[in-house]
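Sharing a chain and its predicted structure for anyone who wants a worked example. Both blocks are below, sequence first, tokens second.
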Amino acid sequence: MLDIKFVRDNREFVIKSLNKRGYSVEFNDFLQLNERRLMLMRDTEELRGKRNNASQEIGRLKKSG
């Protein structure tokens, strides 16, 4: 399996290599899906941070009674 960063950085090489092997690739679809994946990963990390902050606040409130 190829690294996504390698595929992005070496687009023409990857397309030529896949074409030689008989594969047809819609590279724009790949790039759009990768951008969506990155966006979802950022959103996930942001939500995790909010959850962690809320958990810490709950812990502080429980301690203070």
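Comments welcome. Residues 27-64 form the longest helix (38 residues).
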